[in-house]
Design brief:
Two copies of one chain form a homodimer.
Chain A: H1 14-27, E1 36-37, H2 39-46, H3 50-62, E2 67-68, E3 74-75, H4 81-102, H5 108-126, H6 130-146, H7 151-174, H8 182-193, H9 196-209
Antiparallel strand pairs in A: 1-3, 2-3
Helix pairs in contact in A: 1-3, 1-7, 2-3, 4-6, 4-7, 4-9, 5-6, 5-8, 6-7, 8-9
Chain A binds a DNA duplex (30 and 30 nucleotides) through residues 13-15, 38-40, 48-52, 54-55, 68-69, 71-74.
DNA sequence: ATGGGGCGTTTGTGATCACGAAAGCAGGTC
DNA sequence: GACCTGCTTTCGTGATCACAAACGCCCCAT
């Protein structure tokens, strides 16, 4: 039930449970940009006091998943176009490297898993399910990058995803595409062929494509 | 007096003061790897209760500056050689991009500032001052990267520095070099010449050089 | 000497409260 | 009608406390 693999699953610590749930909601676009949150409200939702809510929020703010106003109010970030461009460039840098490192270890079982996930992506697209699309799309990338055996890099990539979550939801909400992900097929083909330059290009294109529509 | 530029300097909030101070101590190698900390101890040092100490620690843990044991004990990270390699690769990826983006905006005033900072680096090296070396070295890089006008990327780079802080201290402590930083001069020369490939190579070499001595 | 058991101490966690500031809202004025 | 001026509510911050788990230390038995 918890698709996000953490380094060490352990105690049912309250603040960690709140953190994981909020993190998923933000990363997968459950919350629109600028959405306000309160410590007391979060505590109520998860039936905990303000203390664990505060720790979870503090952690998410440190990761860029949430932002604090000057007076300490909590909300999801509203990204400027400059920041979106930066985050897309970071995705390109880090994820191309992750894909490149995963390539030598990408066996047939992985490629088949990626195809299965990709059909789930197509299904989400067909159903106009923005959250489902974001979730399955990120699962596609994460599944590939896990093979890179580079946890620090993967964590960085996930941090970028986290920051873009609400914005991606708003973005894919307004551009109602119905065509399945094209570049995912290119990624799979490059993996099959062991074509590293092709893989790098396919990943770079895939992670930066959606941004071209966001000129403003 | 606070060299680290934050997004918004505002209130004298207790937890933020604790955070900033601890962050500097970690980033600049004031604490050795594996050094243990306690919430009550931190609170005592800064004359606050456990609450702000806890928030500062939570934030630093989220950034990778500190790690928590399975039972929640706080300590500075002890990095495996694989993780060090990863972090060095991340530095290379991100900082090369930052330098490249800073290049078109690097005027003479910036280059002179870099030279001034670089002489401070040399002085720290001559005095065997590990903390001073790390601090001035990072100031050199940060000064250059600030010109890139890419706050999200700079934040990522600083997060990597933060994670490497204690290890860098331990590293530079055991290899007592006395020669001034060679690749900083190459960086400055490439900036002067507007030589982008040269700059990229110089930065990449500079940020990955210290790692070769850490084969273990 | 060395390994194991027992106990006092230290530590993180979560709940609760007081406080001050910010935000939202109403009513009144220009 | 728009704007400002109060007031009321809501919010984040920091302090304090109870609790359970862990750590560390000492002592003893082998």
């Amino acid at each position: 039930m918890t698709p996000t693999a953490k380094s060490s699953d352990s105690l049912p610590v309250a603040h960690d449970r709140v953190y994981r749930s909020l993190r998923q909601r933000v990363m997968y676009g459950d919350l629109p940009p600028g959405h306000a949150l309160t410590l007391r409200g979060i505590g109520k939702d998860y039936e905990v006091s303000m203390t664990p809510a505060r720790e979870a929020v503090r952690r998410l703010v440190a990761e860029g998943a949430l932002t604090l106003s000057a007076s300490g109010r909590i909300s999801t970030p509203e990204l400027s176009s400059e920041r979106i461009e930066e985050l897309a460039a970071l995705r390109a840098l880090i994820e191309v490297e992750l894909a490149s490192r995963a390539l030598p270890r990408a066996h047939m079982a992985l490629i088949e898993r990626l195809q299965t996930i990709n059909s789930a992506v197509s299904e989400a697209v067909a159903h106009r399910d923005a959250v489902g699309y974001i979730r399955t799309n990120l699962e596609f990338h994460r599944t590939l990058y896990l093979r890179a055996q580079a946890p620090a890099m993967l964590a960085m990539a996930e941090t970028v995803w986290l920051q873009m979550g609400p914005t991606m939801r708003a973005l894919y909400g307004k551009l109602r595409r119905t065509e399945p992900p094209h570049y995912h097929r290119l990624i799979i083909a490059a993996l099959r062929a062991g074509d590293e330059p092709g893989l790098r290009l396919a990943v770079r294109t895939d992670v930066t494509q959606g941004l071209r529509l966001l000129a403003t």
